[in-house]
Structure formats: structure tokens, C-alpha cells
Amino acid sequence: MLGQSISKNSLLLAAFALATAGTLALTNLGTKGRIAEAERAAQQRALFEIIPVENHDNDLLQDTIPVPAEAWAQLGSDSTSKIYRARQQGEIKALIIPATAHDGYSGDISMIVGVNADQTIAGVRVLLHKETPGLGDKIELKKHQWILSFNGKSLTVPVAEEWKVKKDGGEFDQFAGATITPRAVVGQVKRVLEFVSANHQTLFEQDKQPLAGGIHE
Known about the structure:
With 217 residues, the chain is of the alpha+beta class. It has one domain (48-203). It is built from 4 helices and 5 strands. A 5-stranded antiparallel sheet has the order 1-2-3-4-5. A hairpin with a 2-residue loop joins strand 2 and strand 3 (91-101). It is globular, with a radius of gyration of 23 Å.
């Protein structure tokens, strides 16, 4: 009888463990799905903040090219990363390039960088980070205007040597009590500009058959 009771309890525990594991797995998948969807929505909003609808006449979300493998390390990208192209009358006016700074204070800082055809910055937006609330999170536009300081900048304005925070002798402000975070963002934005400079002709080469379609938000 004791053996049967132990065996029955073991089966019940095993069944409970399987059911719990299944529930957790489903919950995890559902959570991942919601997080991914939220990230996509945030990216789409940021795309249209950098290149407003009145500044392009193509389907920005569909007119893309993959980030070349040789640039993955430089941009902090991977095989899923794609560059968005903003056009007017078929001519590429700007690119929006995904990039990730791996040297943030609390980990990766995911962002997109808009670069005009003249190699000036159209805008920068941080999409995802784990920086300290009240300090490093000032890289978010909703928390601070700091990210707008990149607008109009290039590798010549300021000169390349001044693409640093002021504490390091550069052009860009740091945050009180938080230097590592802005330092990481400044460095990664500079690397995006260097990537564009080295590949400008290829990146802004006009397709014979540019993508058509309406603009979607």
C-alpha cells in the first residue's frame, strides 16, 4: 500500500510539474511576443519621428536593405537588422540605420540613427536600454532633450576628434552622475557615421526599380 501511495504521489507530482512547465513556457512565449510587438511599435514611431511623413513619399517600412555582415560588429547589428531608406521621387534622401552600443552602464543600448544624403544626422532615437532611472535614462527623448543634440551633426561638425562627451574633451554633454551612458551613445552614433562615410556611394545608390506604395504609420 505504501509503495502504491508513493508511486501515485510521484505520478501526480510529475503531472503537476509538466503542467506547470507548460504553463510557464506558454506564458514566456506570450510575454516574448508582446515585448517584440512593443519593440516593433516603438521602432515604427521612432522612424517617423526622425523622417516625418512629409519628408518622404515612399513606404519607409518596406523600402529596406539588410545591414551588410561586414558591418555587424561596427554597428552592433546582426542578420535580422535592416536599413530603412527614405525617398522623394525615387531619390534616396536619408537612411535610418539600427545600431547597438554594447558598452552602456547597464548593458546594451539599442538605437536608430537617421543619416541624410549629405552625411548629416537627421535624428537619433533610443529604442531599448536598461540604464539607471533618473540618470542614464535621460537618453530617452521623453525624459530629456539630450538626444536632439545630434541633429545636424556630422563627422566634420564637430570634427571627428570631438565626438566625445565633454568630460573626455569632446563636444557632447554628459549627465550629472552618469557619464558612461552618454559616452556609449556618442561613440556608437559616431561609428554609424563612419559606416555611412565608408559606404556612402553604395548605400545611396539609386535602384532602377524603387519600391512603390503608400506611406504607413
